[in-house]
Fold each of these.
Amino acid sequence: KAGVTQTPRYLIKTRGQQVTLSCSPISGHRSVSWYQQTPGQGLQFLFEYFSETQRNKGNFPGRFSGRQFSNSRSEMNVSTLELGDSALYLCASSLVASRRTGELFFGEGSRLTVL
Amino acid sequence: QQQVKQSPQSLIVQKGGISIINCAYENTAFDYFPWYQQFPGKGPALLIAIRPDVSEKKEGRFTISFNKSAKQFSLHIMDSQPGDSATYFCAATGYGGSQGNLIFGKGTKLSVKP
């Protein structure tokens, strides 16, 4: 069974640009969550989607947005990039809304560098 | 109230020794406490998890001890091996919590020396 696939794995952007990251969950998983991982702040929850609806959102500015498609694939977008947005962005999928079980299956992440 | 505090930040253990990582939480609505293991260049992977109705859960060399009254839980790795060298994250979530997703500790980087 294929795991969670994230693309691209690495990307470099400049301040002010925008970026879109993609996530394909494990087949059959309907919930997709996004996390930002940085050395200083650790893993921070961005948002969670279930059946194309945003279920929860973390404490991030409105520049961070996401969506989920009918096939459960998800994208997140960061507009007007700032240096502080440099991070590893992790996507995780689960069978049900993650708050029910906490069992998240993570991808390997998209490493974003903002110059 | 939404924080999970994890310690130590880093840990060095000799092969065969016991690794102990501690976490504390405040939100009594938390009812699920997983531990994740992350190797460099990889995403975190679920290692073991516990619910507050039990005080201990063991899976192979990994044991979670849970103290509901103290709002603390810990991971014990028995007979630690070099292959256990990774970053470990404790987490918490609760169906009734204001944030419906995992709250992670800051992580513990474990190095097991041969």
Amino acid sequence: EVQLVESGGGLVQPGGSPRLSCSASGVSISIYWMGWVRQAPGRGLEWVASIHHDASEKDYADSVKGRFTISRDNAKNLLYLQMNSLRAEDTAVYYCARLRGALHQYYIDFWGQGTLVTVSS
Amino acid sequence: SYELTQPPSVSVSPGQTASITCSGDKLGKIYSYWYQQKSGQSPVLVIYEDDKRPSGIPERFSGSNSGNTATLTISGTQAMDEADYYCQAWDTTTGGVFGGGTRLTVL
């Protein structure tokens, strides 16, 4: 059974720099694009970042570009999201996601359960 | 960056057909995808590559995409279909992009 389990969320002060992790089981992530999606309380989904299976390509939403960094360790079956200079508007549930696609267009076929990041003093 | 627009809400009576639209510039030239999210749960893919259903998704879910509009259609809507629905496309610059979401109410 495929499982994606996020960790690293919690209460963070404005300006903080937490790192989220996503541990995969039941599947090797090494052949998949992976990504992070977030959802602020009571709001819609926002695509945050995605990464090629060998990390040769990374994409970021404009709202996090320059502050967040997506990375992966295929040997450990882990996906990361380093978040810097956090603001109140970064408060959200962060989902780890496995991507599938064709013709260089990707979608999410499997989601984690999410980890809540709350930015507040 | 690319933008997708959905109506905030759609209402439907049980057994009737619900249609949820998603608009974007030349959306019909790229793939559209749809997700269902029930309260307190992670989203679930219901349509990919415009009109394909993943394994386990009921046949009453269908999709189409042409011109500037993609449409998710739920035929014979059931109470269990009440949820938020999000369309998604891929932007070559920033990656994935979601529509704002549509709350489907089954009255």
